[in-house]
Amino acid sequence: MSLDSGPPENLLKHWQELGQILERVLRLARAGQPAALATVTGIRGSAYRRPGARLLIEPDGAALGGVSGGCLEEDVREAGLQVLRTGTARVLHYETGGDDTNVWGLGLGCDGAVDIAVQAITPEDALGVWARVREMLGGEAPFAIALRVVAGGGGHVMLVGESGRLAGGLDDAGAEVQAIEAATAAVRARRAGARATGPGTFFEALLPPPKLLVCGAGDDARPLVAAAATVGFRVLVADHRAAYATGERFPQAHAVVLARPEDASAEPPADARTCAVVMTHSLKRDAEWVRRLAATDVPYIGVLGPRARTERIVAGLPASATDRVFGPVGLDLGAEGPEQVALSILAEVLAVTAGREPRHLRERAVPVHA
Predict the structure, then answer these.
(1) Average pLDDT score over residue span 169-180
(2) How many helices (H) and strands (E) does the chain have?
(3) Is the CB of residue 228 less than 8 Å from the CB of residue 277?
(4) How many angstroms separate the CA atoms of 137 and 344, rounded?
């Protein structure tokens, strides 16, 4: 199963990464400094990052984000510094085949091709259209970012929502109309992903990241919350114990709420884009949380504890609900201790949100991002 109606892979990392990049962009702009932004606009064959992956290059050479597994970043950083010096955009193409002489001696061997557009962001653009993008990243509405980058020319950006253009523009009427039509359709259909709409023109539709509801605020929940937030989930923690349900214990969480599952006034998220992990260590509380979540559209309900305990919890639930219960929670990684258990749980949640059957990548016959 997948949590969005677009490609099976979930692009939650792009939402988080773009937010971090724009925080830096806005800080630079307030100090009157520009920045360069490199964006993966296309891949063919095997590639480490997908279209929409970004790398920020600051005037002092500092960088944030990534457009590959580390093999292209230094070359792209140098291109970004050149863009900042000249004010003109660049379009980069890398052939990452097995021959060590490919990509001008960079020694890559990913057996694919990557297209990257590098554009300057002036302080004016940063505090204008890019600030609007940063606002959208704090909300719950899907949107798209369209770029038009022409080598030797400028770079233009446009923000598109369900109603059409929201800010910015592409400085080309025909390209703008095409991008608005395609991006608006993708946003309305909740279809995350990226594609080109013409020469030098590209858009990425972004969906708000899925949520992870962690029912239970014990010590073993802390590494799970931290790891899930790091990979891009909006994490919410719910617990009935005031001493445990605190922001100080879970600084990476989007929200921490004091809630009992039987309390109708407590309304943690329970929609089709929310996964839940139940881990209060109380059989009674866990059973109450599972019953409550089973009556919602939550597609994944992970239950910490042995199989026999989970079977007791789900006894009496309809088959449509038990199919969504994953207990014991997590993948079979031989995990030991809270940190490894958290990794096991998060790996399973990621597989479910991406609509993937967990298995070794060496068993996959097509590229990961095909």
Answers:
(1) 96
(2) 11, 16
(3) no
(4) 28
DSSP code of 249? T
Which residue, chain included where needed, has tokens 């302080």? 123
- Structural contact between residues 149 and 119, judged by C-beta atoms closer than 8 angstroms: yes
Taking a C-beta distance cutoff of 8 angstroms, is the pair 268, 314 a contact? Answer: no
Q: Which residue has the tokens 């709409």?
A: 197
Q: Is 250 helix (H, G, I), strand (E, B) or coil?
A: coil
Whether 56 contacts 121, CB under 8 Å: no
CB 46 within 8 A of CB 368: yes
- State the number of CA atoms in the 13 A half-sphere of 43 facing the CB: 24
The Cα 185–Cα 174 span in angstroms is 17
**Phi–psi pair at 325, nearest 5 degrees:** -95, 125
* Nearby residues of 21 by Cβ (< 8 Å), 6 or more positions away: 37, 54, 56, 64, 65
Residue with tokens 């967990």: 358
Compute the mean pLDDT over every residue in the chain, rounded to the nearest whole number: 89
The tally of CA atoms less than 13 A away on the side-chain side of residue 133 is 30
Q: From residue 323, how far is each of 1, 43, 280, 299, 317 by CA, in Å?
A: 12, 36, 21, 9, 10
CB 194 within 8 A of CB 115: no
Residue 268 and residue 324: Cα distance in Å, rounded?
Answer: 18
Structure tokens at 231: 């990979």
Q: For residue 91, what are its two tokens?
A: 């379009």
Residue 110 pLDDT class (50, 70, 90 cuts): low
Q: Tens digits of per-residue pLDDT, 248-287?
A: 999 999 999 999 888 766 677 778 889 999 999 999 999 9
DSSP string over 131-196: HHHHHHHTSS--EEEEEEE-TTS-EEEEEEETTEEEEE--S-HHHHHHHHHHHHHHHHTT--EEEE
Residue the block writes with tokens 């060590």: 100
Longest CA–CA span in the chain (Å) reads 68
| Phi, psi (rounded to 5 degrees) for 345 | -65, -50
Does the pLDDT of residue 102 top 60, yes or no?
no
Q: What is the mean pLDDT of residues 128-153?
A: 94
Residue 366: strand, helix, or coil: coil
Tally of CB atoms within 10 A around 320: 8
The answer to whether 216 touches 278, Cβ cutoff 8 Å, is yes
Token pair for 121? 């962001």
